[in-house]
Structures are given as C-alpha cells and as structure tokens.
Amino acid sequence: MPDTVPTYFRKGFGLKAEVQEDLSSDYTGRLVDILRTQDYTLQVGDITVRLAREFGFCYGVERAVDYAYQARRKFPDRRIVLAGEIIHNPHVNDKLREMGVEFLKGGPAGFDFGSVQPADVVILPAFGVTIHDFEQLRKLGCVMVDTTCGSVLNVWKRVDAYARDGLTSLIHGKHYHEETRATASQVERYSGGRYLVVRDMAEALLVCDYIEGRGERGAFLATFQHAASPDFDPDLHLQRIGVANQTTMLARESLAIGEVMGQSMERAHGPDYRAQNFRTFDTICSATQDRQDAVNALLEEPLDVMLVIGGYNSSNTMSLAAICAERVRTFHVGDATGIDVERGVISHQPIASHNEVETADWLPAHGPIRVGITAGASTPNNKIGDAVARVFATRGIDPRSIQ
Ligand code: SF4
C-alpha cells in the first residue's frame, strides 16, 4: 500500500482547545465584555457609548485565525508561510509574525512561491487564493492549511456555475482585492470563461450603457483594463451575464447593481432574452449583512459621533463607514492609537479617500454626548476595547474605573 501522508488541511488539526487560551489572551477585550453584558451601552457621566449588536470578528475570521494558531502548534519546528495576510488587520498579522509565521507578498501575477520548500507549511488566507496560486502550491507538495471562508467558497460555486453555463461573471467588488481576484479566477476552470469586475453602481451603469448600445469601445476597455478577463471583448462578452459579489460589499448597492443589470438586459433584448441569459445571486456573506443591519439599527438612535474601527484596507469596514457617514459625523480609525487623548485629535481615513487625516476637537469637551461604535469583521475585541477606553479618556474618565 502506498504511504500517503495528507498535505492538505481544511478543517484544522483538532487542537482548538489547546490554542483557546492563546486566542483569548491575544484578542479578548474587557470593555467589550462589559458592553455586551450591559445591553451594548456604557454610560459614565455625560458620555454614553453605544456598540452595534453585531460587530468585529466574523465566523470566517475566527476560523482562519484559529487554524493559523493550530498550524503553529501542530508544526512547531517547520517553516510556516502565509500567502498574503490572514485577514486585513495589522494586529492579528503582527501576532502571527511574532509566532514566527512569514508573510509572502502577492501581486497581480500571483505569489512568488520560489522560496517555498516541500517541507514548509503554507497557510491560505480567509479570502482564498487564485486557481493559479493553488495549483503552484499543489505542485510544490508542501503542507497546505486552507482557511478559505465557506462564504467565499459559495461565491466561487456561483461563478463556477456561470462559467460552466457560458455566462460572463459580472462581479461587484474591488478587482485588486484578494477575495475578488480568487473569485474571478474561478472562471478559468472552463475554456471561454470570463469575468468583469465593477467597483460600484457608477461602473455598473457604464456596463448597462454598453449593453444598450450607448458605450464607446475604447473608453470601455480603458476603464476596465485591470478588471476584466485578459481577452474580454464587450461586443461579445456582455451577451450573457451572471451577477455575483465580493462578500463584503455594501449589500444594498450589490442588490441594486443586480437589479439594474437585469433591467438593462431586458431593455436591450426583451424579457424572454433576459430570462434565458441573465442571472443574479446575492453573495454578500451573512456576517457582513448582520453587521450592516446592526449598524443601520444603531443609526436609528440619536448619535453625535460614530466611530468605525478596522483596517484601512478592510472592505467590510469601509462599507460600514460608508453607511454611517450618510447619517452622522463618522470617523474610520485603523485602531485605537488613532485617538490621541492628550491632544484631543483623531487620525482617520475619510470615506472614499486613501489618505489618513487628522481632525482636532472631534469629541466636544463638555456636555452630554452619545458615541456609536462598530468594527469590521477583522477587528479583534481587545482593539475595540482599547478604542472605547480612549473615548472615555478623551473626556477625562479613567477607563480602569469602568466596571
Ligand atoms: S467577512 Fe464573510 S466571507 Fe469574509 S471571512 Fe468573514 S464570514 Fe467569511
């Protein structure tokens, strides 16, 4: 009988109990625990903090981080490398670095696995990797610890079905985001499989214009040059379309894009053609949906300021910040260190900007104030708690006195 040693792992190593203590000490937040037990509210003096009921680590992130810790425990003496970032949170990634995990940088052409040896362990992130990267690792024969989230796999199944049935996958997402790159690559399983990524409704409407004969070929190709299959031809490949989305986009915009694409197909070709040649499916994950629903519920309350905590490259955090900014003065901070207690200044990233800016006097020094808080799916509770502590400290309240 051949001696086959498994090299591909998708369900951890049965070491959950062994790593639990490390996970708790690295990511639990005391103030968040208190908020939870007090109906998501902390009131001290004339400052009230309200936490959205769904926030922070999602099931996919918890699982990915858990498996990475388990992999370290399982292979204490092996070199462990991560394809990209496990999730978009610098603190979690730094923790893994402290545990000796090395990070490989990726680019549009994929990862450079040149340094990976068969004896190495490679962790695939919650976003997944492209088919090309996956096959490269298979050929190397290294141990693969695949933490791709089940909700991402669901999007892949949808895109796979579109490509199999001859439809172009139109993906609402960010073409440079790891998850969307991996999702788009799924069309490569079929010869003639194609994709087009639209960032937002404005880009979706450009596609509608083209479908309805109002587009200009050169301008279209220039706009989507980095966001479409290499041989994408709008005159050929917008005839049959299936819509899917990156799991962390703004849910209402994804739904609206599916709707306008369908209407456009119908205007261009008629209802029967639409029924035969157009499909749409909402692939926003339930964790993203729950966090967006919870923040919408919180925004129904009177709030003076909203604080959104999460990595500046975290897609779901940006979606939460965009929702909040429509309704209330909002600050998206990368982490608690963005709140400078001494100077009363906050460093934050405005919506649709890629630059951090500073705002002084962001929290009024006196008078009653209500601060809403939420955090993206990759933000651990201890980092949320640190931010809450700094909010209170900015108003002169010692967070250690809060019970
Ligand atoms: S945000 Fe959604 S898709 Fe992404 S890891 Fe979390 S649960 Fe999975």
Account of the 3D structure:
It is a single chain. This protein is an alpha/beta fold and 403 residues long. The protein has three domains: 28-58 and 287-396, 3-Layer(aba) Sandwich (Cobalt-precorrin-4 Transmethylase, domain 1), CATH 3.40.1010; 59-148, Rossmann fold (3-Layer(aba) Sandwich); 151-284, 4-hydroxy-3-methylbut-2-enyl diphosphate reductase, catalytic domain (Cobalt-precorrin-4 Transmethylase, domain 1, 3-Layer(aba) Sandwich). The protein has helices spanning 16-27, 30-37, 59-74, 90-98, 131-140, 150-164, 178-185, 201-211, 217-223, 234-237, 251-269, 271-277, 286-298, 315-325, 381-394, and strands spanning 8-9, 41-44, 47-51, 80-83, 102-104, 106-107, 110-111, 121-124, 143-146, 168-172, 195-198, 241-245, 278-280, 305-309, 330-333, 339-340, 345-348, 357-360, 369-375. Strands 1-9-8-4-5 form a five-stranded parallel beta sheet, covered by helices on one side. A five-stranded mixed beta sheet has the order 2-3-19-14-15, sandwiched between helices. The longest helix has 19 residues, at 251-269. Iron/sulfur cluster is lined by residues 58-61, 126, 149, 151-152, 247-248, 285, 287-288, 316, 377.
* Number of domains as seen in the coordinates: 3
Please count the beta strands (DSSP E, at least 2 residues each). 19
How many helices in DSSP terms? 15
Mean pLDDT, all residues: 95
* Main sheet: strands, sense, barrel: 5 strands, parallel
Low-confidence stretches: none
CATH architecture of the largest domain: 3-Layer(aba) Sandwich
Class per helix and strand makeup:
alpha/beta
Output the CATH topology of the largest domain.
Cobalt-precorrin-4 Transmethylase, domain 1
What would CATH call the homologous superfamily of the largest domain?
4-hydroxy-3-methylbut-2-enyl diphosphate reductase, catalytic domain
- The end-to-end distance, rounded to whole angstroms, is 62 Å
**Looking at the structure, what is the overall shape?**
globular
Question: What small molecules does this complex bind?
Answer: iron/sulfur cluster
